[in-house]
Q: What sequence folds into this?
């Protein structure tokens, strides 16, 4: 299944590839090697775009004792830190880096009520840069669960320049349901209470809506 956010990009990619092929065959009908190169280039572009915007069907995990990963990718940060925007206290930060080959659909880590849904314009530092959490384009979301509150951020990377998020303050949401999308390489930070039990390790590959990050 292809995500709806990919439709404009796919249409533009089809038009671009069609233009390349038309130009090659119309203006250079005798240069067969050029035709092959243009066909291969067009196939590469279309396969890359389609795989990036894929939205696979999975058996989504729902367990109110767990905090589920909001994104596919690799765990690049697990540390105690100060969360200064909303909680203004000490939290455990777990960061998941999404490369361009990962699924980029984002999902709710817990069920509950949306307390904050805020967009921040900003820079486009590489997603693994330490300052990307506070200086890059990003959204901050807070969900109040019966056992506590979770803050998580969608963070744009050097390539990702459009963050899509579908939540609004006061909305009731369900764990593992889709809440947004980030185009191209990016990162999601999750801030959880200090007494939560971490269930992942640095460098571990996780899947959004499936992998347990922590237990209440």
A:
């Amino acid at each position: 299944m292809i995500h709806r956010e990919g439709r404009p990009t796919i249409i533009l990619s089809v038009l671009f590839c069609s233009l390349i092929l038309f130009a090659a065959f119309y203006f250079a009908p005798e240069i067969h090697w050029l035709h092959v190169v243009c066909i291969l280039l067009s196939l590469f572009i279309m396969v890359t775009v389609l795989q990036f915007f894929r939205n696979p069907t999975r058996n989504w995990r729902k367990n109110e004792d767990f905090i589920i990963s909001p994104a596919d990718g690799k765990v690049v940060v697990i540390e105690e830190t100060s969360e200064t925007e909303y909680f203004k206290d000490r939290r455990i930060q777990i960061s998941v880096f999404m490369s361009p080959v990962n699924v980029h659909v984002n999902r709710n880590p817990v069920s509950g009520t949306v307390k904050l849904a805020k967009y921040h314009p900003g820079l486009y530092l590489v997603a693994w840069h330490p300052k990307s959490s506070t200086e890059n384009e990003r959204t901050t979301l807070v969900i109040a669960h019966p056992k506590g509150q979770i803050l998580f951020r969608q963070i744009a990377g050097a390539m990702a320049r459009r963050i899509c998020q579908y939540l609004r303050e006061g909305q009731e949401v369900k764990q593992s349901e889709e809440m947004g999308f980030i185009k191209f390489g990016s990162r999601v930070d999750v801030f959880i209470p200090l007494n939560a039990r971490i269930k992942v390790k640095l460098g571990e590959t996780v899947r959004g809506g499936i992998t347990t990050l922590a237990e209440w």
Summary: The first strand starts at residue 66 and ends at 68.
